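With this grant's support, we have settled on a layout for protein records. One resulting record is reproduced below.
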Amino acid sequence: MKRILNNSISLFVVVVVLFLILPLPTFLLDILLVINISLSIVILLITMNIKETLEFSIYPSLLLITTLFRLGLNVSSTRMILRDGFAGDVIAAFGQLITSGNVVIGFIIFFIIVMVQFIVITKGAERVAEVAARFTLDAMPGKQMAIDADLNTGLIDEQQARIRREKIQREADFYGAMDGATKIVKGDAVMSLIITAVNLIGGVIIGMVSRGMDIGTVFTEYSIVTIGDGLVSQLPALMISTATGMIVTRSVSDGSLNTDMIKQFTAQPRAIITAGAALIFLALMPNTPHLALGVVAAILIVFGLLLSRKMRAEQQAQEALEAPSQEPEPEAAPAEADYYRDVSNVYSLLTVEPIEMEVGYSLIPLVDESSGGKLINRIVIFRRQYAQEMGFVVPTVRMHDSSVIGTNQYTIRIKGEEVAKGEILVDYYLALEPSKPLGEIDGIETVEPAYGIPSRWILPENKEMAEIYGYTVIDPLSVVLTHLSETIKKHAYELLTRTETIQLVENLKKTSPELVEEACPSVISYALLEKVLRNLLMEGIPIRDMQTILETMVDAMGTTRDPDLITESVRNALSRTITRRFCEDGQLRAITLDAEVERRVVASLTKNEHGIYLAMEPDLIQALITQLAEHMPKFAELGQPPILLTSQVVRIYLSRLLSQYFANLYVLSFSEIVGTVQIQSLGNVTMQQSAARRAVGT
């Protein structure tokens, strides 16, 4: 029984296809026509009550099935009309209902219904579906970047990020399918006109030739059943077309269509009162329906006044709750000069904070917890997540206001020196501009501080329209937190001190005391361990697996004491960690080097008394930089950081060279990627392209 239920839809589609071939009894056709109408009503109501389109993700396939079902019934009814001049009680009843004794009026009404569906609803839904599919695909990189930003700041975890990424992919697939499914609705409307014409013309010919009826009787009889058949098919088709338009226009909503319409209409009492006043003005004009206009105007004005009074009462209650309590004035602080008379207090000025953030006066509400500021709590969440991901505990971020910088500005300092700054507008939203926006949104042009994306500061009332146009909209708090977290990640290796290194070793001693006793500091000095850990953090490699790091370093110390070579050995030992860090769904998308380029890079390695360094030819450097710059947009479209894949021999030297030109480029070696990963090359750096450019230049 369960197997039959699981395959019921497949059996239903097969049966529907048989409707096109096998004749149906009249009573069964009546039942199926009623089922068709009922099914279309259910689908329409579902599209009006869902909160988002993915709640009804089967709609494109359902649209095809219902259209096929309706066409199958059309073919069966056409067979009966041409054969008997009668196609059941349902079609006859609808034909009598719409004609009401006048065939011409019936045809006109039927034609109007078909044109409304074909020209207004179907054509509009087709256009909306096409635009929705396009801007959904264009907005995918920005949405992916927003998810990464929330993940980096600790607002969501890996599981939530994976769910949101899957949702974005499903949305793109859904709107792409709807773009094609609307063509089915359009073709169904055209087919309805063709079948109606076939029923009428074919019925008249068969009635006159085969049944010997006169032209008046034939036209009357076949017109009624033709109109009834067309109406029975067009009524469900019209509701399905309306449902199609409904589901593709559900762009930005917090609830069902019913809830959103009531909420948004009742939020504008002034517009309702103004409409009532306009109707009163029309009622005073001569030769107008005074009674109808006056009744409707009175209803609108009374309703608007009631809504306005209710909103005013709610606002007063909210203001009463938010009224600040009377607090005692703080005692006067001691004079600054008296405080620094004590020399020991002067030494406090020499302290350098690891991470420091200064904010302007307008940004204090974001930081001050007594005023509802959430920035500090979000930083705590980020610190916890970063420790879990990278194995490094970010120091406390010291925050204070500053009168030196602008009121809307903030600066980020690492060990007392400014490394980043930005400016935000607290009462606005930041809209990240997509590659191909569907429309222009009013706002103040700026650049997103963390990733350098062209953006606009927009008013809150323009937020929904910006999202419709494909912009990714971010609140000011998330902008600041994303910038701070990205800055900390970039300078994490500078924040790793000798004290923190010793603390990491002491933490490992709890689980592996024998390893720590063997390694530190007898074999591996804390200074060397600090250098290796800094090298790993500098290139975004987690140092959480301290046991593997120490074991590998102990083994490598038997052959070399060069921190760079030891770091490469540690990276190879952390291959699973590196693979998880940079691979997604078992794939690594990266740029590769041509064999000739790799050979020339290896040949450029030079050794002296200070170690090995890279002495590359200028044309080779130019080829690398130029071609890498050409491939960078491909990674931006995929929403992932750019990766260059090389051999282990040259990895570290290329990484240091290219970091001067590409701050976000990660250079990995083949030996650092586990064998089960599928490598997908997004581009290949070759010497031929460089030679071709030189030839064109000459």
Remarks:
- The first helix runs from residue 2 to 6.
